[in-house]
Design a protein that fits this description.
By secondary structure, the chain is an alpha/beta fold. It has two domains: about 150 residues, Aspartate Aminotransferase, domain 1 (Alpha-Beta Complex), CATH 3.90.1150; about 230 residues, 3-Layer(aba) Sandwich (Aspartate Aminotransferase, domain 2). The chain is about 40% helix and about 15% strand. It is built from 15 helices and 14 strands. It has a seven-stranded mixed sheet with strand order 4-10-9-8-7-5-6, sandwiched between helices.
Length: about 400
């Protein structure tokens, strides 16, 4: 058997390309935050994770520019050897204060953060309890470890309790969950997870990629929002959402972070975070703390869209975040919906199985603090007309 046979047989994407419904890898030629240019056309972006709208903030851009002039465009080595800058350590100290954790370690990407932290801490006699709908980077971090992976039903604390009760007491246990689930936008019941985990001697890690910057009185994420920061063992996240950059972090006790720092292969064997990216994150943290009104504008926009889409009759799921899914339930209908939106100048993300459970194919929308009412009204109008056109909504009144 030829190893490449599977490549020849993979035709689904080519079929979508042939009929004009292929939505992925669309090159963006220019971006203005709320709007992007694709194929020479300006489009309203409601598919970005740029929740606070900071990618084009002049302070963030200036911080990145100054860092390039001082440190150059890359570190050309890993943190372990020649790739640690004083800027990395400044960012880690600043993040630790922001999150309310003893210590923080940064990685080059958010995906590497989950790979590195989970696979380093979980050994061959340990067990990971993982929510079934966790992000792919969590799943891969679990697989890369030498521990045993067990998945509990999504956001089901009773099922987690049942599964933990079946793990022998002499085995190390880690419960890992997203704080905000990236497709449906719902929150993990972190309070209940911590309570059950403590009863069984397990540690708890929360990947808050979509929560940090957005949730909580100070924008510190899901754990702050739920009042459990002091009770969770690890908070992980990324800089590619609210913090308008790239990279990732894990926060925890000093001893745990020290251990990860000296054992995580994705950290030790990858080039470190470019200075421009680190400087941009530092600027974003300052703005997040200084401008709580930015978060207030974001939630005003989110609540407006939730209300409008729900009143139109769309199924928007259990979202408690700036991610609002429109559940379609059929793959080709989802792609048709995406295509008409695209033609009308609205950029969204179509999501199909296995990224969501079968029958839960959806249009994933996400919103920014910088969206204007005029832009959001255009989006609502487009969803209404297409929903009626495709028979997803009742006849227009």
């Amino acid at each position: 058997m030829d190893l490449f046979d599977k490549c020849q047989k993979f035709v689904r994407a080519k079929e979508l390309m042939a009929n004009g419904h292929y939505p992925y890898f669309r090159p963006i030629q220019d971006t203005h935050g709320n709007e992007v240019e694709i194929g020479g056309r300006r489009m309203i972006m409601v598919g970005s994770n740029n929740y606070l709208g900071l990618t084009h903030h002049p302070e963030v851009q200036e911080a990145a520019r100054k860092a390039i002039l001082k440190y150059g465009t890359g570190c050309t080595g890993s943190r372990f050897l020649n790739g640690t800058l004083d800027l990395h350590e400044e960012l880690e100290e600043r993040l630790a204060r922001f999150l309310g954790m003893e210590a923080v370690l940064t990685f080059t990407t958010g995906f590497q953060t989950n790979l590195g932290a989970i696979s380093t801490l979980v050994g061959k006699n340990d067990v990971i309890l993982c929510d079934r709908e966790n992000h792919a980077s969590i799943i891969d971090g679990c697989r890369l470890s030498f521990g045993e992976l067990r998945k509990y039903r999504h956001n089901d604390v009773e099922d987690l309790d049942r599964m933990l009760s079946m793990v022998p007491k002499d085995r190390g246990k880690l419960v890992v969950t997203d704080g905000v689930f990236s497709m449906m936008g719902d929150l993990a019941p972190v309070e209940g997870i911590i309570e059950v985990a403590r009863a069984h001697g397990a540690r708890v890690a929360v990947d808050d990629a979509h929560g940090v910057g957005v949730l909580g009185p100070g924008g510190r994420g899901t754990c702050e929002h739920l009042g459990v920061t002091d009770d969770v063992d690890l908070i992980l996240g990324t800089f590619s959402k609210s913090f308008a950059s790239v990279g990732g972090f894990v926060g925890g006790s000093k001893n745990v972070i020290h251990y990860i720092k000296h054992h995580a292969r994705p950290l030790i064997f990858s080039a470190s975070l470019p200075a421009a990216a680190a400087a941009a994150v530092l600027a974003c943290i300052e703005i997040t703390e200084r401008e709580p009104e930015r978060r207030a504008r974001l939630w005003r926009n989110v609540n407006k869209m939730k209300k409008a889409l729900s009143e139109l009759g769309f199924e928007i799921g259990p979202s408690e975040s700036p991610i609002i899914p429109i559940v379609i339930g059929d793959m080709m209908l989802t792609f048709r919906f995406w295509k008409i939106l695209f033609e009308q100048g609205i950029y969204v993300n179509p999501v199909i199985s296995p990224a969501v459970p079968p029958g839960k194919d959806l249009i994933r929308t996400s919103y920014m603090a910088t969206h204007t009412d005029e832009e959001l009204d255009r989006v609502i109008e487009a969803f209404a007309s297409i929903g009626h056109e495709l028979g997803l909504l009742g006849a227009p009144s």
